[in-house]
Amino acid sequence: MRVLTALLIAATASAAHAAGGSLTGLSETEARARLGAPNLERTEGAGALWTYRLEGCALLVFLRRGQDNVLKITGAEASPRKRGDPQPETAACIQAALARKAPSSR
């Protein structure tokens, strides 16, 4: 199971690098400050997967612990919230996640 998870994280992270560009390279602390706490966290070995459940999409954030022992985002990908829904754009899903965490302007 660990090998499968590691392969999935590595393959998806490299494919999602461009789509998750605005988040790529952020440390765990920076990511939590910008996105808030994820709805679901899974950590295995040097990798982690965070899921943010948003109104129109689910944002999957891929992280990897580097040689400096800091967990950093390697990519992100959007998925539909329900089976059969159209594939959301990753950039729009990232923006929705950032907007959800943004301070209100009252």
Written overview of the protein:
The radius of gyration is 13 Å and the shape is globular. It has one domain (2-101). It is 33% helix and 27% strand. It has 106 residues and is an alpha+beta fold. The protein has helices at 2-16, 28-35, 90-101, and strands at residues 40-44, 47-53, 58-65, 71-79. The model is unreliable at 3-20 (pLDDT under 50).
Tag the structure with descriptive keywords.
106 residues, alpha+beta, 3 helices, 4 strands, 33% helix
Order of helices and strands, N to C?
A: HHEEEEH
Form type? globular
Number of DSSP helices?
3
Helix content, binned percent: 25-40%
From the helix content, strand content and strand pairing, which structural class follows? alpha+beta
Across the major sheet, the strand order is: 1-2-3-4
Main sheet record: 4 strands, antiparallel
The gist of it:
The protein has 106 residues and is α+β, with helices and mostly antiparallel strands. It has helices at residues 2-16, 28-35, 90-101; strands at residues 40-44, 47-53, 58-65, 71-79. The protein has 3 helices and 4 strands.
